[in-house]
Amino acid sequence: MRRLFNTLFYKQQQRTRLQLFSFNYTPTMAAPYHTKIVPVNPLHFQFEQTTHGDDFAEQNAKPVIADPKDQTAIEEAAQLLTAGDAVGIPTETVYGLAANALSADAVAKIFAAKNRPQDNPLIVHVSSLAMLKRILPNNTIPPVYQQVIKHHWPGPLTIIVPTSDLIPTQITCGQPTVAVRFPSHPVARALINQCDFPLAAPSANSSGKPSTTLASHVFDDLKGRIPLILDGGPCNVGVESTVLDGLRNPPAILRPGGVTYESLSSLPGMEGLQVYRKDFIDRALEQAPTTPGMKYRHYSPEAKVILLENAADPHTFERQWKQELEKQEKPVRRLGLLVTSKDTPSVVNHQGVECIPVFMGRGEHPEEVARGVFKGLRDLDTQNVDLIFVQGIPETAEGMAVMNRLRKAASKVIEL
To answer: How many Å apart are CA 149 and CA 143, to the nearest integer?
Structure first.
C-alpha cells in the first residue's frame, strides 16, 4: 500500500510539473560568470584498490593524483561544487555539466545554464559502489545489476534504480526511479571522490545542440554561465552512456550508447534484453521519461540535417544527396557532408554549391564514428553551412548509438 501511495504521489507530482513547465521555459540566470578553463592530464590519475579478493575491488578503488597542479584543479572544482555551483567536467562519453546531486538549488543551476526543459531528468554520477548504496533505499543495489556492474562499471553505462528521499525531485522529474552511472574517466572519478557526494551531470551543451566532446565546445555554449571547465582533452567514447533499465521485465536499453547491446545481452540477468523503439514503444514513458534523451529533439546544429540511412556505399550516398539537394525549396549556398570515407575531397563544388565534407570516422569502425559525429556536426556549424547531409552507418555495436543520435538530430530521415 505504501508503495502504491508513493507511485500515485510521484505521478501526480509529474503531472503538476508538466503543467508548470514547458520546453520553452527559460530559468532566470544569475549574474554572468567569468568562465575559466583549467587543463588536467588524465594520465596523472591512478586508482589503487584498497581491498583484495573482493569481486568489486576496482569499483571501490581510490584515486592517486601524481601532479600537484592536477590535484589543485580537482580541489578548485570540488570547492565550487561544494558551494553549489555548476562546473564543466570531462567524462569518457561527452563533457558533463556537473552539480551536487543532493542539492536542489545546485541542480537548478544546471537547468538554468543549459536552458534545459524542467521535465527532462538528469543522470547521477558516483565514484564508488559505497557512494551508490548511500543514495539507494535500504542501501541496496538491485541484484539484477550485479554482473552488469562487475563487467561494465566504471564505464559508459547508466542503470535505472529506485530513488530515495536524498535525491531531489528535479533530478527524477517526480519518477520513483533515478538514472545512475559510474564514469570511468579518471578526472571525473577523482572529482566525485574529492567531493564525497554524487554529481548530477547532463551533457555540457546548450539544450538541444550537439553534445560537447571538447572543452572548447563547452566554452562556446556555456561561457559566462558557469565559473569553471576542467579540460581533460577529447572524450574517447564520443556519445552519451547506454541507459539500461533492468527493473523492467524483460530488461531494456532505453538509450543506446557506449556500452553495446552485444556486450550486455549475454550477461546473467539480461536474458531477453530489448532495445527501445526497436523492440517496443511506450508512449507514457516518452511523456514522463525516466532518463534523458527520450522526449525532446536533441543534438541538432543550426543547419538543417538530412540523414541518409543505408548509404554506406559512398557512390550511393553521393547520388542520393545530389538528388535531394535538387528538391530543396530554400537556396543552399554552402552544403555540409558528414561522411565515413576519407576519399572524399576536402572541398568540392556542385552546380555552384560549395560542398564541405567532414570525416566522422570509418563506417566499418563504428567506435570511430561515435567519437567523430558530434564534433563533425559542430565543425560544420562553425563553417556556416545551410544544409547537412549525413551518411548513415549499420546499427551494429556502437553504430546503434550513432544512428540513435543522428535520427534525433535530423529534420528528415531517408531510408535507401
So the answer is: 10
Q: Any idea which residue has 535520427 for its cell?
A: 407
| Residues in the chain, overall count | 416
DSSP string, 343-368: TS-SSEEETTEEEEEEE---TT-HHH
Using an 8 Å Cβ cutoff, are 232 and 187 in contact? yes
296 belongs to a structural domain: no
C-alpha cell, 40 = 588536467
| Residue 316 belongs to a domain | yes
CA distance 39 to 73: 8
Contacts of 234 (CB under 8 A, 6+ apart): 213, 214, 371
Stronger pLDDT, 377 or 119, i.e. the higher one: 377
Q: Are strands 199-200 and 123-125 parallel, antiparallel or unpaired?
A: antiparallel
* Segment 338-384, tens digit of pLDDT: 999 887 777 789 999 999 999 999 999 999 999 999 999 999 999 99
Q: Is residue 299 part of a domain?
A: no
Distance CA 100, CA 85 (A): 8
Quote the domain boundaries for residue 365.
304-415
Domain co-membership, 218 together with 92: yes
| Strands ordered across the beta sheet of 348-350 | 348-350, 353-359, 334-339, 387-391, 304-309, 412-415
pTM of the shown model: 0.90
Residues 283 and 312 grouped into a single domain: no
Q: Give just the sign of the alpha carbon dihedral 239, 86, 122, 124.
A: positive
